[in-house]
Fold these 3 entries.
Entry 1:
Amino acid sequence: MNSRRILLAVTGASGPQYAMAIARAVSLAPGLELHLILSEAARKVIELEADFTAEDLTALAQTTYSEKDIAAGPASGSWRHAGMIVCPCSMASLGAIAHGLGTNLIHRAADVTLKEGKRLILVTRETPLNLIHIKNMLAAKEAGADIVPASPGFYHKPKTIEDMVNHLAGRVLDQLEITHNLFQRWGE
């Protein structure tokens, strides 16, 4: 494998703009391949919330998988990748991942990512949180996932929604040490 594969899974939580910003940055980064799993619920949320289409998002990926294809490469530990991002991560997917329930390719790939000791970033997008959500975050963290809530920062003085989206997307990419120019770093 000459390129580092980054696996991006998009679930049906609000905020597909974060996934698009991450996908764009990964697709532009030298030496990276974007592999995408797009749930049916994510397609619906994109249709309702975004100014882009699911096809715009899939066009950025080298390979796109159906969440129903549990025989796809990412379902196996022998399929090599540099890390997985679930963005946005619905509370249903968080619960399935936290408890090892491989009900679809997103959940199975996340489980495999954890068992193989690879980085798994869950960009949770829900508010307010109930106790079940918090316990599922704890269980996912204890299993080895990193939780990056979709909470925008303001210290960089964002002027637009895109600035806030890019800041969060950049922070997610930082977790996998992916070089980007989505925001200006503090003190630079």
Entry 2:
Amino acid sequence: MVKVYEINGIKPVVHPTAYVHPTAVLIGDVIVGPRCYVGPCASLRGDFGRLILEEGANVQDGCVMHGFPGSDTVVEVDGHIGHGAVLHGCRIGRNALVGMNAVVMDNAVVGCESIVAAMSFVKANMAIPPRSMVMGTPARIVRDVTDAEIAWKNVGTAQYHELAERSLATMREVEALTEVEPDRQRMQWESSVPLHVHKNANQN
């Protein structure tokens, strides 16, 4: 059972085609749109401001979304939020990616199809233009995002769309096996690789 909490009479909204892991926590003014994925141990606290995941967005395990009173924290269509990232009162544009353990602060705007590198710190009020590669602490714009990088990102986001579908259909709590079965199956997915491997392959 997903941990969903009402506060001051305001309940989270989860579209029936979205998947929210049972260990995630949704509090108050949280709106999860169609085909979204919310991973294990994510914390979406709509107890001060409103949190919105638009269609196809994913917020992975250990992420935190929150904001000051009256603020909106928004992940637009197909936004991709990597493991452990923190979003606080900001807006992540359409088809943008926020890397693992990155932090995006209040009133920052990450433009559509931009990439915020893992471990980056995006300061409050920073406006990142569309298709920007951003990295560092504090984060700075280092170059434009390439078509190849957007194509790579799209593969990963599409896999999270499928993961939401598979999870709704087949994920269930079970007892662990005590030994490995003969001919143990692997998860079947379209091939994908980390960005640095993808870039090296394209350069060769």
Entry 3:
Amino acid sequence: MSADPFLGEIQPFGFNFNPRGWALCQGQLLPISQSTALFSLLGTTYGGDGRTTFGLPDLRGRSMVGVGSGPGLDHIAWGQRGGANEIALTVAQLPAHSHIATLHAETKAGDANNPQNKLLAITSTNIYTTPDPASNKTMHPESIVVNNAGSGLPFSIDSPYLGVYIGIALVGVYPSRS
């Protein structure tokens, strides 16, 4: 923190209080009549009605990012808020994948005519055998339905963080444009 900060400069503090001439960036509204110079810099970018009040940035639980865009990045506008603390994926967002299924057959003859909820088994009569069966035959490939796994509940996507106080200079040198 410089001795003469720019008006509207944002700084993190390693201590747990608000220094004189600074306000914490917690989205509070200020009267325009008491901070006209700061209002001339911020306008209603962070809130307020623009007639009697204007807002300070609310950085509680948020990270700051630079405005603009770059290769492979979305455009970020001044004052734009984005992101989420958690997300729930839909089936459409999951990558294509497969499962290997191992099926086991009963070694004794099956005793049911209806295969529903039954194990694979050899037949009780030899209707599906040949006089000279060959070994290692591959069965006809079929799709197997696998039920959904997981709860479908949102999960945290927070980056590692360290909580500090972040303030904005209410007094200071009015920044000149270059």
